[in-house]
Amino acid sequence: MTLIHYLILMPILAAAFIPLLGVGAPKLHLGWGAITVPILLFSFFVSYVPAIASGDVFSASVAWMQALDLHFAIHLDGLSLIFTLLITGIGSLVVLYSIFYMSKERESLAHFYAYLLLFMGAMLGVVLSDNLMVLYLFWELTSVSSFLLIAFWFRRKNSRYGAQKSFLITVGGGISMLVGFIMLHVMSGTNSIQEIIAMRDTLHEHSLFVPALVLILIGAFTKSAQFPFHIWLPDAMEAPTPVSAYLHSATMVKAGLFLVARFTPVFGGEATWFWLVSGVGIFTMFWGSFSAVKQKDLKALLAYSTISQLGLIMSLFGLGSAALQGGASTESVLYTKAIFAALFHLVNHSTFKGALFMIVGIVDHEVGTRDLRKLGGLIAFMPVTFSLAVISSFSMAGLPPFNGFLSKEMFFTAVLNANQMTLFSMETWGLLFPIVAWIGSVFTFAYSMILVFRTFLGPYRREKLEKTPHEAPIGMLISPIILCGLIVLVFFMPNQLSHYLLSPAMNSILPTYANMDGLIPHISAWHGFNLELLMTIGVAVIGAVAVKTLRYWYLVYDFFPEHRSIDSGYRWMLSAGERLSHQATSRYMTGFLRHYLYYIYGFLLLITGGTLLLSGSIIIDPSGDAPVAVYEVIIVLVMAAAAIGIPFTKSRMTAALLNGVLGYSIAIFFVLFRAPDLALTQLVVETVTTVLFLLCFHHLPEWSREERSLKVRLPKLLVSIGMGALTVLIALSVQGNRLFDSISSYFEDSYDLAGGRNIVNSILGDFRAFDTMLEVVVLFIAGIGVYTLVTLKAPKGEDERERE
Amino acid sequence: MRENDVILQTVSKIAVFIILTFGVYLFLAGHHHPGGGFIGGLTLSSAFVLLYLSFDVETVNAGIPLDYRKLAATGVLISVCTGMGSLLFGSAFLSQTFAYFNLPLFGKTELATVVLFEAGVALGVIGVVVTIITSISGEV
């Protein structure tokens, strides 16, 4: 375990202790306790910056399950470092903000911060893991914690709906990604991402290469809300605003981008990868910004804007992957600019979108609504918030002097470069990229302006607001002020950011280009009157006109009615799935115990009996058997008499006692065959079960005579005889088949190995302790199950299903 | 069923202690002789069951105020946690160890970590069995 391992586990452990802090210091706002974790983590990760910038990487591995190639392996390189800084940096700001946003009196803060810290640890795990399976584990953990956070106000129907939707979509994508990972493992024979990257050339030929690529991309697309999986993100806005700022704009939704960046060295250069990533990305960028303009709710607007921006970054990663086609050359280094732009915009997006979410949260908190139709004229009441909103949304619109301008220009450069590409049949389709990108940017400009001007300018309508607006407390303003400071700072000093954070990440995404000339462009705010600048000016002009004439634009949106949206498709799938499974289940869940027993024993007969027959393993070899003594025959006869007697008894009591006779006779057999442990266990178990039987009789109705029709009795008879015959056959065949050497010699050393002379218990408690442990857990679960079923019944009439 | 249980009650008062002692013996003997956590736990719980059978649930609960669900949970937790213990010493999960000590009165004695694991098993078994029996009989 290295320091980095502990850094990943720290927030998860802290999540466990946060509720205790609430008990220990009831007057403290738990946020003050929670904020120490991200600040500490941030300072730790910042301390890695100089080393990473000078080209170091930190790898370490802790053995976990060797047999499954499962190791807690971490890899901290430039790419991971950017994400860890975002996770912990934005995390600190969000926690600080939440201290003033979340009321200590009304909210269950222990849950809130426990989930938030759990998420932080999971997210760090995602970006630092080098083992595919561990990455997957953390990946799903982020979905789980996101689910918990979206449903934080679980009394609201919409919160539960949004949480379920995001969970179904992201976990569905996660499972597809898992299958992709398994395929990668099959191809490469390793779970280590770095080792897979090292053998990328040999993987291309494999028939599973493209399927694995597509499956992993589905995982990335669902997480990063790419079209058509983007529908979960607007519904996820039901979460408290600090959560939206943190998970659903700055970090979790970027996990998909991280995954794409991480696997670019493996899949980059493949046409499928190029087209899927860049095509889906650019379309998402357009669709998100197009949908954002029509939103009436500020948070919904930001959600669609996030979708659009994620699409933008995704398309840049796709375009940049073309650089890995063929070898690294001075020509193809041009394409790597797209990757650089992607990383740059990824950082910038986190700053301005984080700030915007916090600003919308402030408006919501201080005014009581985020409905654009009610808001207006807030500039007089909230001058600081207004200034922050201008900075962050102008940055989002791509205007100087803010960092969004720089990365937006680089985005235009990248799509223009894409137009020049001569591979992947880009000659025909390449022109689409600059056009779609430009149109998307116009919409981006439009909604950025709507966000600021509709909220803060325009007529002030007191009668539509719930309370008189006023400026937010300073504590809520600190975090957005810091982020806005960064927005401006990055604009003036982009090359420092590039040197310390972006260029090491470039080296890890494009290992073949590492430290090549021209890989790291010099970022400058002024680069002459070129096409990119003209595009930006065009965006601003057309965007401004569009905002002014917005009224007429709404006609366009009427072409996309609600009932034909992807969202309604999702709802239809959900209800159809429920309907179908209900029909299927009610067909075989008849309520007759005998039917369930038929299923169980039928399958057992079919599978076990079938295997026995087909593999020809029914071999009965009596040569090794011990001689049969007279008393053994007597016990067998007693057992047979008891067993045959049970179906013919007239009362339950007799049946239970006869069953007991069977059990005790088996115990006698164990004694005869010198297995005292088994005999003892069998005796006590038999006693306890008989008691249980007798107790249960109180609950059962009188034993009525069953139907005597042959139709009912014949299947019972067949199943019983079949099961009996099968068991006997298996028992006899076991002796005749020696598939492997006996392992008993290993256990004979129990005294030396485990210090115990009782071999049985040495096996149970030492050699195979894992089995025993899980058996105890299963026993416990069964006990809890019985307890809940028997005692925690809803009182009559209160069960919803009973009323139906 | 409750009319004539004086004999049963009198006998169980004595028998329970014999069974309990036997159960503890089985638990401790398990390392070298027949016995162990599972069977010890089962025997102990059969003593409790006997008590519940001969007296009613309220009387026994007043006499032995134990929450058997918590007991079961504690047992499971102990079993799992003793497995974690070995991780602290750099061994694999659930590794057991043993050593010989010279204790006063007992002389040379073997102490094994597996006892802790088995104690968890025993508590888990007692808790679960008694929980099941009482929750079913509680309905009568």
UniProtKB/TrEMBL annotation, chain A:
Family according to the record: Belongs to the CPA3 antiporters (TC 2.A.63) subunit A family.
Specify the protein name.
Multisubunit sodium/proton antiporter, MrpA subunit
Q: Which organism is it from?
A: Domibacillus enclensis
Q: Which GO terms describe its molecular function?
A: antiporter activity
NADH:quinone oxidoreductase/Mrp antiporter transmembrane domain location is 129-426
**Is-annotated flag, keyword Magnesium?**
no
Keywords of the record: Antiport, Cell membrane, Hydrogen ion transport, Ion transport, Membrane, Sodium, Sodium transport, Transmembrane, Transmembrane helix, Transport
What membrane topology does the annotation report for this chain? Multi-pass membrane protein
Entries under Pfam families matching the protein: MbhD, MbhE, Proton_antipo_M, Proton_antipo_N
Q: What is the lineage of its organism?
A: Bacteria, Bacillati, Bacillota, Bacilli, Bacillales
Q: Which residues cross the membrane?
A: 6-23, 30-52, 72-100, 112-128, 134-154, 166-188, 208-233, 245-267, 273-293, 300-319, 339-363, 375-397, 431-453, 474-493, 533-554, 596-620, 626-648, 655-673, 679-697, 717-736, 772-792
UniProtKB/TrEMBL annotation, chain B:
The keyword Cell membrane belongs to this UniProt entry's keyword annotation: yes
Give the coiled coil ranges. Answer: none
> Which GO CC terms are listed, alphabetically?
plasma membrane
Q: State the membrane topology.
A: Multi-pass membrane protein
- Pfam families registered for this protein in UniProt: MnhB
Question: Could you tell me which residue ranges the Na+/H+ antiporter MnhB subunit-related protein domain spans?
Answer: 7-131
Task: Tell where it localizes.
Answer: Cell membrane
**Organism domain of life:** Bacteria
Transmembrane residues, as ranges?
6-28, 35-55, 75-101, 113-136
Alphabetically sorted, this entry's keywords are:
Cell membrane, Membrane, Transmembrane, Transmembrane helix
Stated family = Belongs to the CPA3 antiporters (TC 2.A.63) subunit B family.
Listed name of the protein: Multisubunit sodium/proton antiporter, MrpB subunit
Species this chain originates from: Domibacillus enclensis
